[in-house]
Amino acid sequence: MTATRRPSGGATGPSRGDSDPIARLSRRPHRRYNPLLDEWLLVSSDRTRRPWQGRQEPPPPGPVEQYDPACFLCPGNQRANGAANPDYASTFVFTNDFAALRPDAPEERLEDGLLRAEVEAGTCRVLCFSRRHDLTLARMERPEVRTVVDLWADQTAELGDRFQWVQVFENRGEMMGASNPHPHGQIWAGSALPHEAAREDATQRAYDGEHGRRLLLDYATQEAGGPRVVVEDDDWLVAVPFWAAWPYETLLIAKRPVERLPGLDDAARDSLAGNLIALLGSYDRLFGLSFPYSMGWHQAPFRGRSEEHWQLHAHFFPPLLTANVRKFMVGYELLAETQRDLTAEVAAERLRAALARPEPTRTGEAAARA
What we know:
The chain is α+β, with helices and mostly antiparallel strands. The chain has helices at 21-26, 142-160, 195-211, 215-223, 266-287, 332-335, 344-356, 365-369; strands at 4-5, 30-34, 39-43, 92-95, 109-112, 115-118, 122-128, 165-172, 184-190, 229-232, 236-239, 250-254, 293-298, 313-317, 339-340.
């Protein structure tokens, strides 16, 4: 199903008057609660007017070629370890040549007073989304993105047979630490439950225990049709969460009960592909550049038991506040609690407005695909 594009408003924030408590709060410093991580953050919208004489990000590089003979991920090219990529037609998966986790790691622990450590077994894979060096998920066709969705699901199912936590993610752009501009993501799978996953596991389990419902399904129901929604259809909701930390952070939630990517049916996978293109396209059109971000799926751990308190969702964390100024998590954020300058409601309005703009012409792409 085609994603529904929310009507766009102005770029100055909610205009529902003094009767709206969120509009009143947004005019003064306030804290918002994140029920998924059980933490608070500070919102200070007046800071968007402060003068900026700090670091300004350079403009993005110029046009990218469809094939780069020096790229370690392009089809047929040699990687840094000497292995040669096949001449793959669409997607390609391989074990990371410089993996942070290894499946053959022996069991070993350290317990010495306050000093504790343990060896972590796992694996890291690289997922090339397309053979074309010049594409991004936002600029791929819907069937191509659907192929990536299926790849995420297949890899999750395979790795879940051996590891408790399967982390699917993508770092887009140099600003997010991507070591290669070729369209690709990663999967790290490990035997332990990482910190962020453990926090979300605990909050979702506690909510389900108290209410008999899934936390994120209730949140999706409450947000549907509201001012923080960017894109939604029958299967998915994309919103700037009420508790967003990054300026244009979004949360993508499946609207029907499902714990993991392999549990999505064909219709949900098709609509997911469309929603991804819509969301990432709105990011790119927001400032007229290929938007950097880190995104990742949070799906239920593989523990051999029911995980019906979990709801499948994905986080998108883009760092830019303006086209050339990024948000820095420093000082107060590192020492006290997260702080943001732009309210979630204003961010969602701007993303909806960007989504409504005409899509840039993809000159020559149809011919290149023929």
